[in-house]
Known about the structure:
single chain, 8 helices, 37% helix, six-stranded parallel beta sheet, Rossmann fold, 6 strands
Amino acid sequence: MQRLGFFGGCFNPPTIAHYELATKALEIANLDKVYFVPMGDYYKKEGLVLAEDRFQMLKKMTRLNPKLDVSRIQMEQLKDLKAIDTFKLINNRFQTSQNFFIMGSDNYKKISTWKDSKELLLDYNYIVLNRGDFSGNNVVVVDTTDDLKNISSSLVRDKILKKQNIEKLVTKEVEKYILQKKLYGQSA
């Protein structure tokens, strides 16, 4: 049985940290593949570029590793989904694999406040990206290194607005896409 990881988020834009954490999860949890699952356009967040742009940046980033891919499952929905809705969609589409949901420890700690939290905690497998002193039962924990903890999508967007270098924060392909499309407040 295949072991698949699903890494959800905005990826606005996808960073080197997202890439490195996905490859670490592959190794530590012995996964066959990790799918990035970008939020669709129905998710409202200030400064969020179109889902298709985020999808294309993720596709460019994942070309570096054949065990990484991108799923449109959230983007295909015509409404904003809660975690439980997305997890059910994924499990229905990938019925013959063992599925793991990848998230940061900050989000995992909030699950008890989410819709259908008991079901989320009992019925699903998690890989938790540890950003501090997290430890949990029935989860695979992936520790992040200090250099990755300091890389975020908001840092990248801020540097773009200030016309600062982002080459060590995103892949070359993602940087090229951002510049070509003039994303995140760039002017011609």
